[in-house]
Amino acid sequence: MIDPASQQAAFDLLAHPSTYGGAKVTRMDTHAAAVFLAGDRAYKIKRAVKFPFLDFSTVPLRKAALEAEIEANRPFAPDLYLGLVPIVRRNSGLFLGGAGETVDWVLKMRRFDETQTFDHLAAAGRIDVDLAAALARAVATAHTRAPIVDAKMWIAAVGEYIAQNDVAFREMPDLFPARDTASLTEESNEALARLRPLLQARGAQGLVRRGHGDLHLGNIALIDGAPVPFDALEFDPIVAAGDVLYDLAFLLMDLVERGLAAQANAVLNTYFIASRRAEDIEALAALPLFLSLRAAIRAKVTASKGEHADGAKRDTIFKEAKAYFALACRLITPRPPVLIAVGGLSGTGKSVLARGLAPYIMPEPGALVLRSDIERKAMFGVAETDKLPPEAYTPEVAQRLYHTLTDKAGRVVAAGHSAIVDAVFSKPAERALVEQAARDRHVAFHGLFLDADLATRIARVGGRVNDASDADTKIAQSQEDYDLGNVEWHQVDASGTPEQTLHTARVLLR
């Protein structure tokens, strides 16, 4: 075991500018590591510590932990983690790299602007729905690379997390009311019992993986204009494991807690589009438990930090812990789902309305949007913005498309989540199909049919860039001859701004 004085010498080496050719050095410390920022690189060393949940007390253990950190982060940030460098002793002095007796190890990383982490961006109001969507695509890609793990141990651990939270909350009744704690624990255990077969099936499908484990906004950075999750949890493979939607739930919860509802909904919808996993629809049933558990764990961890703080800082931390706890209690009892259909000819603004409306449709983080243009592209196995040939728009394909859309919408609401179906719905039979899906699942249905004059529709269709729709001005013109039949849905004047259309729709839905 390395003694403290020997590791202090390593810290002194890493803190000295001469180690990096004279570059300025900035040091950052945690309870288990120290990071030294120099030039365009960062160097991380594990502390010689031993806790109940981790052991870095020897050089081999610290090296193994750093290797595990590289492995854990490879799916999420493959270009950020550059490898291990030894600290060696030569001629009674310590050096970073080269020949000599190895006395410790450091992780060499590509440095990024510390002010560009997503918690800072959120505080500055710089996370818009486009950036949120880019983040969702990055997470979806990483999840495809994440290694599959045995689901049994993780499912068992979920029950342990609920029990551990209960103990922690009961020890602090001034922060966490006993009645609310009892209710949260009971409802969480009931949800886990109900969901256990689903989680086991997800494990059999290979959807329980070694994920990030700590996917909150502070562990995501904007690097070269792209979101990059980093600092994945490495010290406990069980804690880092989970259903891919449980991994995503930390990010969704963090956005919801910060009041970024539109961004949270954009992450959910974009993740589903990017993943193209039909089986994730049924897993929406687990999302309330996943979100609530993430918030509850955050409440517990935050409260423990407050116990070691003083004065105003302590009060601020405890206030934050109470907010997470309240969120956990809210998320475990989601509101009933609804099924909404948004119809209208090309250029009326259906997709803009559906995206704008989704964050307001409970349960959190808002409705799943099923867009016909995207679903059609998925049917033919092409990217969102790839143009399809005419044979993809035959009546037979349209019939299959509407059955697929309504089947998925029915599965979404059956899982307890809300859905918005975005399609033209020009035929009475298409409208009847989606209405029947709601009746079959015993959920409320709302139909919105948008209308705008031809000139407005043509202008909107002609102005589209990088959009999933293949509709052009010729198609918009041809739709003027459609016989819509008797439209019994709410008629919405969509000739104004998107904000006006959204306001009208929300008033109608109330």
Q: What's the number of domains?
A: 3
User: Order of strands side by side in the largest beta sheet?
Assistant: 1-2-3-8-6-7
Q: Structural class of the secondary elements?
A: alpha/beta
In CATH, the topology of the largest domain is named Aminoglycoside 3'-phosphotransferase, Chain: A, domain 2
Largest sheet: 6 strands, antiparallel
* Number of beta-strand segments: 17
Topology summary:
Blueprint: H1 4-15, E1 25-29, E2 33-38, E3 41-46, E4 50-51, E5 54-55, H2 59-73, E6 81-90, E7 93-96, E8 101-110, H3 118-123, H4 129-145, H5 151-170, H6 178-204, E9 208-210, E10 220-223, E11 226-229, H7 237-240, E12 241-243, H8 244-257, H9 261-275, H10 280-283, H11 287-306, H12 311-331, E13 338-344, H13 350-357, E14 368-371, H14 372-379, H15 395-414, E15 419-422, H16 428-440, E16 444-451, H17 454-462, H18 473-478, E17 490-493, H19 498-509
Parallel strand pairs: 13-15, 13-16, 14-15, 16-17
Antiparallel strand pairs: 1-2, 2-3, 3-8, 4-5, 6-7, 6-8, 9-12, 10-11
Q: Outline of this structure?
A:
The chain is an alpha/beta fold.
Relevant terms:
510 residues, alpha/beta, Phosphorylase Kinase, domain 1, Aminoglycoside 3'-phosphotransferase, Chain: A, domain 2, Rossmann fold, 3 domains, 6-stranded antiparallel β-sheet, 5-stranded parallel β-sheet, 19 helices, 49% helix, globular
